[in-house]
Please model this.
Amino acid sequence: MATAHSEACAGSLASEQKAASIRLHGIVCWRHMRVIHSSFTRKGPNHPVNQDRVLEPVSSGQEVLFGIADGLGGTAGGELASSRAVIIARDTFQRDPAIALAALFEEIRKGIAASASTAPQLADMATTFTVCRLSEDKATVGHIGDARLYHLHNGTLTLRTKDQTEAQRLLDAGLLAEEQMASYARRNILLSVLGATSSYDFFSESFEVYPGDRLIFLTDGAYHSITDNEIAALSAEADTMESLKKKIEKRAASRRPNDDYTALCVEVV
Model:
């Protein structure tokens, strides 16, 4: 199984690296609801490859799963780790849609470890990963790292994840002020990632969703370039997920982000 995943990843990496930007959109139906989605991923200006990956909504049985991954920069294989996370999550979910998200993430860790064992330079490969599973009118988030999931309901934007970073821990401990976060030199230092050799702190919570609700995933390259208030305002201006995706992409690009930046916009209808 590890070899099959490795071959699939290699093929996806080769095709994705042909372009700096990938945009996708579509509709996924399940039971009495459906989700409309659109996404983009853009390579940072100083990066040789884009290490972000999108798990487009996939349905299986009575469930829908979707999410976003950000390969760990500064180590070899970050783009392979994020690709493996997306591919293993998709394939495992389609085989077993009832799998607990904690168990799903452990399957991904094992897959990344299998890939890392094939070459010494891949030993430290790792990724963040944030997913949402929809079932009936309930959403369940599974989260490791610092990608974010925002939930927009009746005009109110709620952050459904917490950054697993040094900066967030210092903020929670009262040792760093909110206004210091943007300029903190180590704000991107991660405390929890999915990797071959690292331990991780799995976070999960459930919340209700209703028709008209929007779920917006952003990697750190995107949300460091756009404020929460701007996300809510752009959503209010956008009638479709394609329009919202384009607005977020344009706003983020105008801020000249240094990192890869990616968004997945999903609406429940």
